[in-house]
Structures are given as structure tokens and as C-alpha cells.
Fold this protein.
Amino acid sequence: MPLTEDAAPKADGVYLRVLASGSAGNCSVLLFRRGGVRRVCLVDLGLSPRRTVRLLAECGLGLHDVDDVLVTHFDADHYYESWGRPARRGEARGEAMIPRHVRVRVHERHASAAARAGVPAHLVVPFACGPSGGGVFEIQHDLGGATVWPVLTAHDALGSVAYRIEHHGSDGAATLGFATDLGRVTDALLEHFRGVDTMAIESNYCRAMQLASDRPEVLKHRIMGGAGHLSNDESAAAVREISPRTRAVLLHLSRQCNTPEAAQRAHDAGPCGVVVTSQHTPTPWLRIGASSSEKARLHPTVCIGSRGLFDGVTAA
Ligand SMILES: [Zn+2]
């Protein structure tokens, strides 16, 4: 049985749990609950199937509970290759690992990458959007609707997709922004996410640590040149503009060129509480769009992987 704090919440609402985030693999769970009905959406499949199954099981969930997968892009840390491999001889690629009922939401310009990664074609539900958004689709229709506004970011040649997800539940709307591997922050991106309840956003590197690292110059340039990742300061500036109503969740910290403390420090003067994610330890379940009394309790800063883990955290 899962530990109480790990178990998927039973109360109505929308919840986010980042299972892991970083260059060694990314996967998050979005849970929608309304009127006793539960729907589960994963953001990225960047962990091995075995580890994903184990981390879901700690919450009392299984792959069969997953309804949708939102893929940000197909770099190996966001889509683990063995999701597309047959588990047994004779099985079609990927069918054994991703249940047949799951809709894998993929930007149309990532469709070739999805095919190369072995995502079964009949699971892929393509969508379109540009750097200013322009696309919208619905998931979880039968739960009052979660509306998803994707926006294409400047990461590498094909970009990654950031998502604004709005759910209309029994206690009002709850809005989540989820943006990782951004490259750079544009005005359109800020506008896309302004005023969400919770903003999950990458805070990849400390600029001083990056410059001082022994990484090849070409790699530093790729990361810092506007088509790689956001520094802690760039991430904090974006969060100040977006001004989330409840909290920021800091994603994809570099193992070599960042620390949870440095990322947190950069965000200290921000407009909301901060949760720092980890490559190794899942976050608690974070309720999106909590009531105002809950918001007051949620505000303490949480640094996963540091001393005082979960002190003052309201998980759900
Ligand atoms: Zn990444």
C-alpha cells in the first residue's frame, strides 16, 4: 500500500506530482478528480517503463490508469527509448508498454520523431501550435473539460511544447502552466502563462557555475545561447512576470551546473512560494487552484532533496 503522503488524492481537484525532473529523465503526473471520477495524464515519458511503473505504484496508480500523455519533445530525457520497444517477440513496437487506450499528444512537427521513437501511430493524437500559441484541444471531456493551450518554444531545431492547462472542476477553475526546455523567454510565452495558479518552469543552471564549469565551450553556448535552457535568473524573471497565484515549481535543474539552494535563492524574492523538483525524489501531490486558505498554507518554500524535506508542505 502506498504511504499516505504518496497516495493519489481522493478529494475533487487537480493535482500535480513531478516524479522526476532533470537531464536524466522527466515525468510528471497530472491527476483530475471530480465527482468520484479520476483521470490521469502524464507529462513526458522520460523515465524507463520499469521506474515509471514503480513510481506510479507508490501512488496507488498503474499504467492502465493513464488516459493521456502530453509530450513536450522527443529528446531522450523526455521520451525514454524503451517505451517504443517490443516487450516480447512478435509484439508491435511500443504496444506492450503504452496501453492501447492512451492518447499520446504530439505536436505535428514532432510526428517524425515520435515515429522514430517507436510510438505506435494509432496512439498518436497530433496537434498544432506556434510560438504564440494558436492551438487548443480538450482532454478529459467527461470531467467538465480540461482545456490545453500548447505553445511552441525555442528549444533546439524543432522546439519543445509548453502547456497551459485549465480545468473547470466543482470548486472552480484551476490553471497550470508547464514549461521546460524553453531556450528563451519571449513576450508571447509570458502572455501565454500570465496569472496561472501554478507555474512549473525550468530553472536549469546557475550562470556562474555554468561559466566556471569544464564543459566544452560549444556545449555552454548550446545551453546558454537562447535555444537551450533557462538560467535560474531567467527563470525567476519569467516567474515575476507570470506572477502565479499559488506557486512556482522549478524543473530540470542541472546536476553539474546548479544546486537546489541556488535555484531557490534566485526565486526567493518572487511573487509566490517555490517547490524545487529533483531527479531522484518525487514532489508531494501539489493541488492546483487551491482555495485561499489552502494557498496560505501552501506558500512555504519546499526544496526537495534538501534538509527539512516536506517541512510545512501541504501535499493535497
Ligand atoms: Zn530536457
Residues 13-85+99-303 form a domain with the Metallo-beta-lactamase; Chain A fold (CATH 3.60.15.10). The pocket of zinc ion is lined by residues 23, 75, 77-78, 181, 252 (CB under 6 Å). The radius of gyration is 18 Å. Residues 31 and 313 are 18 Å apart (CA to CA).
